[in-house]
Amino acid sequence: MSPLTAIGITLPLEDPILKFMLIMAIVLAAPLILNRLKIPYLLGLIIAGAVIGPHGLNLVLRDSSIILSGTAGLLYIMFQSGLEMDMNDFRHNGWRSLVFGLYTFSVPMIFGIVAGHWILGYSVYSSVLLAGLFASQTLIAYPIVSRLGITRDKAVTIAVGGTIITDILALMVLTVVVGLSTGQTGNGFWLRFGCSVVACVAAILLLFPLLGRWFFKRCSDNVSQYVFVLVMVFLGAYLAQLAGLEPIIGAFLAGLAMNRLIPGTSPLMNRIEFVGNAIFIPFFLIGVGMLIDYRAFFRSWESIEVSAVMIVMVTAAKYIAACLTQKTFRLSRDQRTLLFGLSSAHVAATLAAVMVGYNVVLGHTPTGEPIRLLNEAVLNGTILMILATCTISTFASQHGAHNIAIKGSPTTDKHDSGEHVLIPVSYREGIGELVGLSIALTKQKYRNLYALNVIDNQNDDPELKKRAQTLLETAATAAAAADIHMHSLLRYDVNTVNAIVSAVRERNITDLVLGMHRSSPGPTLPLPVLAGTAAALGKTLPPVLAQCAVTTFIYRPAQPLPTIKRHIVVVPRKAELEAGFQAWLLRIRHLVHDTGAQLIFYAPETTVGHLRGKRHRKDIARYIVHEAGWDNPASLLPQLRPDDCLWVVMSRRDHLSYQPGMSRMPGYLDETLRNNSFVLLYPVQAGHSEQPGIFNMGIG
């Protein structure tokens, strides 16, 4: 009796507790061991799956639970790749993905047909289907790119878009070849297939964003939002399956559809990446490893020959496709390496195609043996090709991505002290929205967030301190949900204004994000009341604006920031002459780039050129010449849609861009915009006085 049997443990493991514990132990230990051996993490999990799988130590069977988790992990990878794509860049450069998709489909198809028909001696149908295996690819190395923070590099965008194109074409080849070889392509085949594909794509890309925006507006619960995202992933995958496509296509389209609703710096995106990297993706990689059977090398010479031909031909074909793309678009060598690495792995669509081809029986030999469209040698060769291509993919992707990440890291500038954002908090409601805006406005590498609460130094009530700690913890929790540290500041001072001004100076604050009181309740999010006054700006904001020479945002949210479709910015005459012009412009552009919303500027003709700058070709913003006077706010402001956020660039009195009508703007917006979010933006201005008691704001 073995020691394991003595304690009631039999192999392969059947106890779900032991199976899950073993897999999670592998996920935990793999990085610690593999980092010392210089083996990529993804490859290590695949090798671990081969070791513990039915063809290795037989510790765990590849049963329905492993298949379910692995399928979820594969769909998760495709969804995440669609979710993290730069949609603005993809929209303007989608033709690059199309060209690469055609390269990485046509070159392997040619190599596959040559290898199948003229080298291995297969029939035409079998050779074309083998070529389809060569053409398909899986973004197994995408987590490497995601961890290094270069998901928006041009090579990554091209690879992700090209993968979808080549996989769709490869799976269409599979559908057509199987139909032709079995005689199932009738008169209505192409019409039914085309209509189902169009209906599936339209349903996902058009209906999912509407459903997502409706849900996120009405539900702020973190768990419910994440579960909703999972439902969308699997619903998209199922719709694609109904249309005759691979589920991975539907998962990717679901990611594209939800892209604008889940910004890269949002708490929801952080949860999606965390759960995927910790659970779903490792299960998928370990499940892939369980498919690998090393004994296939020794079964027959044909399996070795077929696998060798497949590995050499498919690797050469994918490398040639990457080289052609590099030459076409003048990419760097590292981008070519990354492109090759991302496109060289074969797992999902390849497995689907080979299993379909293996299960298609065209007839029987005189001895009763089935004649398959793809024989057992191709099946074994495909498993070995998966191991080889995954190894090549992880090493190539890690090498290229690492070099790109290093070259893309800016050198430290001694004059750049970073982005320091202060968020005064007085009421629990609305803190999450203020924190969300602060995160979206700034760059991750440089941001430092501070939450401030002020207590009257003459009031020693312990309940005030307890309440202040609760507010600061709420702000810290909101930032931590996005994996960002929030510095908490609790100050005792004679008044709120002095405390804010002191914090701005002590912490080198560059941006101030404030909430604005709403005079009467409406069907919107509750907001923090900074001074307990019913006035639009209250008693606190005017002196703060007068004494703080930093870019200041006064925010009144009416709906969650990720659900905003358009950000409309009204810019006054001579705004480009102010000292802080480029600073606030950079903030707004960063926010729009992060959330994926549209950006529209309303400005005088002389200001439009400065807003556009040198970005004529790559600019995603729209510019509308707007010369209306500020004396009449109703004529100044554009027509707003329900999901618009209005930004009004203001000025302090007696400065270059100041307009007399600005004094009435806060009150007018507070009274008239009940269903739209808006931001009053006060830029840094030259000669701005920081002397206490000077309140020449011109804001009434």
Strand % is 5-15%
List the quaternary state of the chains: single chain
Number of strands: 12
The chain-level structural class is: alpha/beta
> Strands of the biggest beta sheet: in what spatial order?
5-4-3-6-7-12-11-8-9-10
Mean pLDDT: 83
Topology at a glance:
Elements: H1 3-6, H2 16-37, H3 41-52, H4 64-83, H5 87-119, H6 124-135, H7 142-148, H8 154-182, H9 189-218, H10 222-242, H11 247-258, H12 267-290, H13 296-299, H14 301-329, H15 333-344, H16 348-359, E1 361-364, E2 370-372, H17 376-408, E3 419-424, H18 431-441, E4 447-456, H19 462-480, E5 486-493, H20 496-506, E6 511-515, H21 541-547, E7 551-556, E8 566-570, H22 581-595, E9 598-603, H23 605-612, E10 622-625, H24 633-636, E11 644-649, H25 665-672, E12 677-682
Parallel strand pairs: 3-4, 3-6, 4-5, 6-7, 8-9, 8-11, 9-10, 11-12
Antiparallel strand pairs: 1-2, 7-12
Helix pairs in contact: 2-3, 3-12, 3-17, 4-11, 4-12, 5-6, 5-8, 5-14, 6-8, 6-16, 7-17, 8-15, 8-16, 9-10, 9-11, 10-11, 14-15, 14-17, 15-17, 16-17, 18-19, 20-21
Which tags fit this structure?
700 residues
Structural write-up:
57% of the residues lie in helices and 10% in strands. It has helices at residues 3-6, 16-37, 41-52, 64-83, 87-119, 124-135, 142-148, 154-182, 189-218, 222-242, 247-258, 267-290, 296-299, 301-329, 333-344, 348-359, 376-408, 431-441, 462-480, 496-506, 541-547, 581-595, 605-612, 633-636, 665-672; strands spanning 361-364, 370-372, 419-424, 447-456, 486-493, 511-515, 551-556, 566-570, 598-603, 622-625, 644-649, 677-682. Helix 15 packs antiparallel against helix 17 (376-408).
